[in-house]
Specification:
2 copies of one chain form a homodimer. The first copy, chain A, has 224 residues and is α/β, with parallel strands linked by helices. Helix content of chain A is 38%, strand content 11%. Chain A has a 5-stranded parallel β-sheet, sandwiched between helices. The longest helix of chain A is centred in the middle third of the chain and has 16 residues.
Amino acid sequence: MEKAVVLLSGGIDSSTVAAIARDYGYELYGMSFSYSQNHSVELESAKKIVGDIGFAEHRIIHLDLASFGGSSLTTSASIPKNGDHTMEIPSTYVPARNTIFLSYALAWAEVLRAYRIFIGVTAVDYSGYPDCRSDYISAYETMANLATREGVEGRKLKIEAPLITLSKAEIIRRGTELGVDYSLTHSCYDPTIEGLSCGFCDSCLHRKKGFEEAGVPDPTRYIS
Amino acid sequence: MEKAVVLLSGGIDSSTVAAIARDYGYELYGMSFSYSQNHSVELESAKKIVGDIGFAEHRIIHLDLASFGGSSLTTSASIPKNGDHTMEIPSTYVPARNTIFLSYALAWAEVLRAYRIFIGVTAVDYSGYPDCRSDYISAYETMANLATREGVEGRKLKIEAPLITLSKAEIIRRGTELGVDYSLTHSCYDPTIEGLSCGFCDSCLHRKKGFEEAGVPDPTRYIS
């Protein structure tokens, strides 16, 4: 069975990507990152998805991205609500986040001899993050194949971003076909301690709209 | 004063790179990584170099690369001595190491608004590591400029690898001109607890040969 490393945040996108990778027939090696207090709810969701979809292994890597500052997701800056942005790239953007995540995935893939890394970026219901675009993913793949023993000596590594051309609604429809239990997933940037979603941050707004457009009942527990 | 992030291992190459960046007129932000027990001696050297050359800030990032395995530098596998290799890429290669290091540097550079990252890779007295080649550095730079807010909206980031065409002897001569105190640096893959160098690992062999060819006295304390 071919191995694939899957970046798993515990949200809709990465959970759907995991189901797609399993559907392709890969043995799944999940990698999640703990990089701020805000995300403990997301990590619990990632663990539930791992149990539900079935992974060969799941690693949680602890990163200290907060010490760099630069994002409202890793500092005490307030999370924008109701689409209230003053910049093209929102404050929830974390500097070089996907680059750091993919680099850990690359290290693990090389050791596992996995030739696929799956990442749930999407350029449609695009969050304005530069590291979610197709050009970025292609450039990362080129770099990765120059960086590693395998890329030099043998088989090429591929970064799979199967959601890149899908809208949130299309992602939810695809995941629903594949049996993803979205009640296990989490999207909110600003959840309560009990894990309820705020309903008004960018991530909640995309999520609500996605379920609505997909015609799939939204299983999310919102505050109100 | 323009800022530059400098990847600093505490060895000859990165210490020379720091001196070059300072000579170019940059304000230096040093970044070192703690990724295995083996390297505590190197980190002590990095701190000494920071003090000697003068940095605005120095960060040590703790990484758990050992959990991935795959390298004799992060596992209990024996370090090759006297050039005894059975593979083209030696066992001391750490999967995706420079990619992970550069990715952290990229995050910090973005927050600092630094447009230069200095790295002491060299393709001449080439250690056989894929992530020390010029093609790799160029591909990383291309990817980095697609990954970040700055790369998209503003000024381009440059990865500076000023040693890439220099031999170890040329590096030592250049650093000596710039006043680098090489007695503070450390190269050995397999030092004693007291910090003495083994004298026979690849890194010691390159170091000895470098000083010899440069005609500069070797200040290293070897076991014998």
